[in-house]
Design a protein that fits this description.
By secondary structure, the chain is mainly α. It has eight helices and no strands. The termini are far apart. Belongs to the sigma-70 factor family. ECF subfamily.
């Protein structure tokens, strides 16, 4: 598995026009994204390859939006996540057409505005954390990666990821209490 630095270096070379680096980046990204999707769509193996292709196409068409100074894997996983959500929405839309309990669920749903506000609050709080804590939480808690995968991506040790998650979550809890 390639480290975050190696993947990012491939992306930067690809953005500068290196076709070989771009091909290698897509191969390495495919492995990461396929594993990411498999962990989340365990009951839909047929959809994984379709989603992988959709994600790679989105990466290709949106590569100009990548910020060179930012880590690459969160950007890749965000695209995969959005493609997965689109797929789940399409699937649930078809299933919802036959769901007689759909109307009863309205009382428990969270509005898009509330979800958006919560996400903005979380983003602000995460941004205030040191990079090691922020990245540890982002990879393990938000993206669902294992501690070992997060360590490989960030170049930190497994222990550093665990400590970063622990301290970061503690700091977030403290910030949350102060906001309330």
């Amino acid at each position: 598995m390639m480290s975050e630095e190696e993947l990012r270096a491939l992306m930067l070379r690809a953005l500068d026009g290196n076709a070989e680096a771009y091909q290698l980046l897509l191969q390495r990204a495919s492995s990461l994204i396929r594993a990411y999707l498999r962990r989340r769509l365990t009951n839909a193996p047929d959809e994984i390859e379709d989603l992988l292709q959709e994600t790679l196409l989105a990466i290709h068409t949106k590569r100009h939006t990548y910020r060179r100074e930012e880590p690459l894997t969160p950007w890749l996983y965000a695209i995969a996540r959005y493609k997965m959500i689109d797929c789940l929405r399409r699937r649930s839309h078809h299933e919802a057409l036959n769901d007689p309990f759909d109307d009863d669920a309205e009382w428990s749903s969270v509005s898009d505005e509330e979800a958006s506000a919560s996400r903005k609050d979380l983003d602000v709080m995460l941004a205030s954390l040191p990079a090691n804590q922020r990245l540890s939480i982002q990879h393990t808690k938000l993206e669902g990666l294992s501690v070992a995968e997060a360590a490989a991506i960030t170049g930190m040790s497994i222990s550093a990821i665990k400590v970063g998650v622990h301290r970061g979550m503690k700091a977030l809890a403290h910030m949350w209490k102060e906001q309330a």
